[in-house]
Amino acid sequence: MAEKPALRTKLAVGEALRAVAQDICATARSAVENPDNTDAVAVHEFRKEMKRWRALLWLLSALLEDEAERFRVEARDLARRLSHARDAQAALDALDDLARHGPPLSPRSIATVRARVQALSQIQETTTLTAPMRGELLAALDRATTAIGQWPLHVLTFEDVARRLALNYRAIRRAIPDDWPQADPEELHDLRKLIISQRYLMEIVEPLWPRFAKMWVGENQTLRDHLGSYQDLDVLKRLTGPRQPLARWRSRLVPAIAHRQAAHVATARRFAKRLYVEKPRSFRRRLEVMWETG
Asked: For 200, which of 8, 35, 55, 160 could close a Cys bridge (C-beta 3.0–4.6 Å)?
């Protein structure tokens, strides 16, 4: 199996990053074009690659400036147009979360709730990834692939990469709530977006110190998962609002949702405190040493 594109001391920094960009576009294209993928799988895989893409574009934004921002905005907008298909799955995941920790409803009611969310999922899937939408996704990937070959990445050094990674690290430290239990969903959502970028950016330097980087990526993924589960529960909660599909069960579901959200916040706090204890300057120096000794 071929090595996944990433930074390695035997390769020029710019060409390694170009290979990462090309891999993202190729993987996203495969997700959309693969006839074996259901619409749900295609949407999930495409949106995942757009997260990688936006993280890489942010890394390169000091060099590419307006072009990077245009591609970032386009990727964000495409992912948002596909997000409705994700919302129903998020509600199903949240329902599973509740079911594993003392379900607030009877098995029969849980089955009814699940059926209503699944029906919503089927409606959203059939109205999201239409043939015209697939064409838009592929056209966007064509534009990105063409641009990648023209980017002047040969001027980049590892110091440039380390500087940007440290900036992302600093942004995460600043976004970590002072009072986790009182943090609102939007605040935690913004933190999660930064964590996602850090997780994908650290994959790029993983070969320089595999044991450390894999631990870092894994712990960040766990932190991201708990913040994501918090968000999934928030999606489920919205479906219990007035005139929403699950309004009938609001009085039983909302307290259980709040309990599980508090548990996810407590775990996320522990991981964030452990991962982001270093000063940004120390984190940057660690990266530079990884490159020097890699």
From this structure: 55
Three-state DSSP string of the chain: CCCCCCCCCCCCHHHHHHHHHHHHHHHHHHHHHCCCCCHHHHHHHHHHHHHHHHHHHHHHHHHHCHHHHHHHHHHHHHHHHCHHHHHHHHHHHHHHHHHHCCCCCCHHHHHHHHHHHHHHHHHHHHHHCCHHHHHHHHHHHHHHHHHHCCCCHHHCCHHHHHHHHHHHHHHHHHHCCCCHHHCCHHHHHHHHHHHHHHHHHHHHCHHHCHHHHHHHHHHHHHHHHHHHHHHHHHHHHHCCCCCCCCHHHHHHHHHHHHHHHHHHHHHHHHHHHHHCCCCHHHHHHHHHHHHHHC
Write down how long the chain is. Answer: 294
Q: Residue 219 and residue 213: Cα distance in Å, rounded? A: 10
The pLDDT score that the predictor gives to residue 78 is 93
Two structure tokens written together for 43: 């949407």
Q: From CA 47, how far away is CA 31, in angstroms rounded?
A: 10
Q: Where are the domains of the chain?
A: 157-294
Which pLDDT does position 123 carry in this prediction? 62
What are the backbone dihedrals phi and psi of residue 8, each rounded to the nearest 5 degrees, phi first? -140, 145
The pLDDT assigned to 3 comes to 81
Which stretches of the chain score pLDDT less than 50?
none
The radius of gyration of the chain's CA atoms, rounded to the nearest angstrom, is 21
Report helix angle 185-204 to 39-64, nearest 10.
80
Nearest residue to 231 via CA among 198, 257, 266, 204: 257
Q: What is the pLDDT of residue 118?
A: 85
User: What residues contact 4, with CB distance under 8 A and at least 6 apart?
Assistant: 23, 203
How confident is the model over 249-271, as pLDDT tens digits? 999 999 999 999 999 999 999 99
Residue 86 pLDDT: 75
